[in-house]
Amino acid sequence: MTRLPAILLLSAIPLLSFSQLLQVTAGATAARAAGCVGNESISGNILAGYTLGMYGDIPLKRGGNCAFRCGLVLTRWGSRFVAGGPGYTGATRPLGLSYLQSPVLFVQRFALSLMTSLVIGAGSYAACRINSPSQVFKVDRMNNHSYGALYPGDGSNMNYYNRLDYGLSFHCSVEIHDRYTVSLQYDHGLRNILDHNGGAGLYNRTISLSFGYYLNMRKFLNGQFPLSKSN
Predict the structure, then answer these.
(1) Chain CA centroid to CA 194, Å
(2) 136-179: per-residue pLDDT in tens?
(3) What residue spans of 107-168 are helical by DSSP H?
(4) Using one digit for the tens of pLDDT, what is the confidence trace for 79-131?
(5) How many domains would you assign to the chain?
(6) What's the CATH code of the domain at 123?
(7) Residue 93 is part of which domain span?
(8) Model confidence, pTM
(9) Angstrom distance (rounded) from CA 22 to CA 218
(10) Do the strands 180-189 and 164-176 form a parallel or antiparallel pair, or are they unpaired?
(11) Among 34, 35, 61, residue whose Cα is nearest residue 46
(12) Do the Cβ atoms of 42 and 78 come closer than 8 Å?
């Protein structure tokens, strides 16, 4: 399982290398883990996080408006849960899960003006958790009632969270001067993030707002490694 971040990294680099324009992004996330135990819903409060990454477009046709957008992103997901058992109304505590995410999106670009474009896309992602949370979310049952609660780490060194996550991604962005971008993305997890779950399902739900900048890799490489001209 410890090799998963390296696998995601090695799989994303060849895809990104096909693109001559790389987009570096940074922004904030609003994450909320939600799920159910039987017919009873479980959800936490919104947890603020971050997103840092890079994307590269692989055009389906030279000069066309459709492309595959591949990325490698470091992001913080999770939720905030009440610390304690049933009937406990104390303060909430954050359950922060850091992931290395590799999305693959199909995107299409629409011209809004000579200098502005709208990009809409959808696809899937695979992500690997890279941290070991100090908080433990447990699901228990009392008097035929299921409940979830957040506790400090119980010292058992058990892995309460699945290492791998995957799901669907929906993307919308505005590109200005073919250089600056403002992006809004929604990630809908399909993998239960709980391992020792007591029959519960808990899934990542995240909205990301990020700002990006395009790097012209052809211009950069030509500047660093100019082609020699023969006389």
Answers:
(1) 17
(2) 887 776 666 666 778 776 666 566 889 999 999 999 999 998 78
(3) none
(4) 998 776 555 556 788 889 999 999 999 999 999 998 999 999 999 999 999 98
(5) 1
(6) 2.40.160.20
(7) 4-224
(8) 0.83
(9) 10
(10) antiparallel
(11) 34
(12) no
For 69, 121, 176, the CA distances from 109, given in Å and listed in that order, are 11, 9, 12
Q: How far apart are CA 27 and CA 184, in angstroms?
A: 10
**At 9, is the secondary structure helix, strand, or coil?**
helix
Q: How many CB atoms lie within 10 A of CB 191?
A: 16
CA distances from 160 to 125, 157, 179 (A): 22, 9, 42
Q: Closest Cα partner for 68 from 29, 3, 129, 124?
A: 124
Which burial class, exposed, middle or buried, applies to 129 when counting CB atoms under 10 A from its CB (0-12, 13-18, 19+)?
buried
Tokens matching residue 183: 């992006």
Q: CA 219 to CA 35: how far, in whole Å?
A: 47
Residue 191 located in a structural domain: yes
